[in-house]
Amino acid sequence: MSLEFRFTDEQEQFRELLADFAERELLPRYIERSAATEFPYDALRQLGELGVLGIGLPEQYGGTGEDDPVLLGLATETLARGDVNIASAPIQVGLVAAQLVHGTEAVQQRYLPGLIAGEFNFAIALTEPGSGSDAAALRMTATRVPGGWRLNGEKTAISWAMHAEGAVVYAREPGTSRSAGVSCFVVPLGAEGVTKRHMLGMGCLPLGWGSLHFDDVFIPEENLIGEEGRGFQVAMHHFDFSRAAIGLMCLGAAERSLEEAAVYATQREAFGRPIAEYEGVSFPIAEHATYIEGARWVSYKALWAREHGFAHTSLASMSKWWAPVVAKDAIEAAMKIHGNLGYSAEFPLQQRYRDVAAYLVADGTAEVQLGIISRGILSTERLEV
Ligand SMILES: Cc1cc2nc3c(=O)[nH]c(=O)nc-3n(C[C@H](O)[C@H](O)[C@H](O)COP(=O)(O)OP(=O)(O)OC[C@H]3O[C@@H](n4cnc5c(N)ncnc54)[C@H](O)[C@@H]3O)c2cc1C
Hints:
Layout: H1 9-26, H2 30-34, H3 41-50, H4 69-79, H5 84-87, H6 89-100, H7 105-117, E1 122-125, E2 141-145, E3 148-158, E4 166-172, E5 182-188, E6 194-198, E7 210-220, E8 224-225, H8 231-267, E9 269-270, E10 273-274, H9 279-307, H10 313-337, H11 340-343, H12 348-357, H13 366-378, H14 380-383
Parallel strand pairs: 1-4
Antiparallel strand pairs: 2-3, 3-7, 4-5, 5-8, 6-7, 9-10
């Protein structure tokens, strides 16, 4: 029995390729791009060319074929060193495509090649004004009509709402409650009856955050994803993957920030010495490096467990609640070590702080994750000894 904490040679090579791309192509324009509300589609196409958007997706549409959540985690962690927002694209495409592969052949052919090539992206529309953490309380309706459904309702706080080609939308059969009766649909966002409203966040501006209104939007039969009335179960299963990947993305931004702080600490002098010689500076670097290392391996263990078919829901929730907190705190420490420069908009630290803060809430808050973990620990099965 062996236990290995290292990546394969192929994974390392891919990591090096992406690290170079993040350093040369992404980081130099991160601040400029982050101030814009347009997503940089040129960068998305570059990710497509690098093969990042097709990890684990069907080969016939341009993907790698093999399910490889660890590689996807490694990709997003590495890209986030350059640009957190661009690094979120492979997670979004992975999460959307994992649902589209349960759709009809027509839907897969229409959307998967473009998603994998980075030509466009999709939104995932679950949250509503009256339901976020309690997603099963959603109220949007899908009413059966000849040839399909009519959708009515509102989704809010949706990433990519403003730029996406389409959205994976969850809506319920009228008269049903909780998760029963919820189906998942592909909705082209140019469809008649769809309107969008931009929402400005404290970060993540290029992701085009917004709300989507659906006013009697017709959706044909072929746009149903998975089984009618079972859309909720499909969505929840895939969040187990995205939560760990999001954790790693946040940590990538934190790792880069702490490295910048370490370099700065050896160069900046105060009271006649490099500030790195003061334990008030060097110990926080050591502490945050320790937290990052711990959170990284929880996240990779979740993805490894998914790849090998082991239970990983609690691990994914551990990653999702802890890694964004660890990352935010590490970036804050790096900002403080940079003194006034850490607060300056000319340095990427403040931008990373604002972008990473999104993931304290997006994809499920810490409290929701702690609820999942504690229910696993406190279940009667586990406690029977
Ligand atoms: C940047 C960003 C991007 C997002 N992108 C998307 C997207 O693409 N698609 C999408 O569908 N949604 C998206 N969301 C929405 C996100 O998933 C929800 O905001 C999140 O699930 C929380 O829901 P809520 O905002 O309604 O808060 P609420 O559910 O109202 O929660 C409010 C507070 O109460 C706490 N709380 C709630 N229930 C409990 C409980 N049982 N025990 C303890 N505390 C509790 C929460 O932790 C939180 O602190 C995004 C959000 C953000 C900030």
